[in-house]
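User:
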Amino acid sequence: MRIAIAGGTGMVGRHITAAARRRGHEVAVLSRSRGVDVLSGEGLDAALEGADVVIDALNHMSQNARRATEFFTTTSRNLLEAEERTGARHHIVLSIVGLEAADAGYYAAKLAQERQVEASALPHTIARAAQFHEFAGQVITLTTLGPLTLAPRLLARPVAAREVGEHLVDIAEDGPARRAPDLVGPQEETLAEMIRRQYAHDGISRRVVELRLPGTYGRGIASGALRGDPETARIGTMTFDEWLGSEDRRG
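Assistant: Predicted structure:
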């Protein structure tokens, strides 16, 4: 099977690419370095020629709802239209567990992307996953002020990006399902505790202060909705502490 991966060099994309190749699939990585710009549409038709499945793992880290929505809806529209022209049979988009509860900013943009895919005539699967273990490091970069890191109150079941990649290739092999089972991690965590344990592992002395953000977004991420339902979800195996010392993090 020929699988085209948008965002195939990113945090999850590199694991999708590796998993697909290990299983013997032909892979086309869609990236600007290879002459494909999904946002403008440049090079898309040629890159998707002969593709059976397209996996959209593109990301755009912005809490500005307008900018994030413009990115996700434009890239999705360009992919879907190119897939119709080139004859792809399955569109898979990576999304976020429980995002309706935090329908603002980045989460609102991902929800708009889901709705755009659902409205398409193409056979598709929406694959939601919990926050990745790397999320703690991303927040550290954004919210650290000298000896202090501010951690929004967030309850989740973080999952390894490697397992998300394997999950998406499973979906590609299984065929269109409209909505795949959610993928969540093996343990419940708060973001503040994840950051503290990452600092302890790395030998960093820094105070972590947890705070509850206001508004729809703050209530949503603190509500526990982002943990998903472990009774119905697929459960990953790598814990956050295992990931801290793994090759995945060092790589």
